[in-house]
Amino acid sequence: MRSALPILFLLASTLPVAAQHAGHAMPSPPPSAAASPSTQEFQAANQRMHQGMNIPYTGDADRDFAAGMIPHHQGAIDMARIELKYGKDPAMRQLAEAIIAAQEKEIAELQAFLAKRR
Fold first, then answer.
1. What is the DSSP letter of 9?
2. 112 and 62 Cβ atoms separated by less than 8 Å
């Protein structure tokens, strides 16, 4: 009989990563941060993204992936636009611009895929 130790180690080592990404949950900001316009816009963008990702699953992994990724990518675009509106760091602003360009291109590809599948 083989030892279950390697499997248990593997499972235990993945728990922290899984916990970080479960539902993209974010802790509540401190009261002073919650009042900032950028925080309010980030929270609204996050809520829109999660609502959009709540798709009716079809069992077609390709279609479901494309349908779920569109609002996910739109959420990244929305957050990048908030960075451009409020952010000051040149490197973060440059990254936000790159994210917008890349995610818009990928959304177009996903939409084209879905249009062919209808």
1. H
2. no
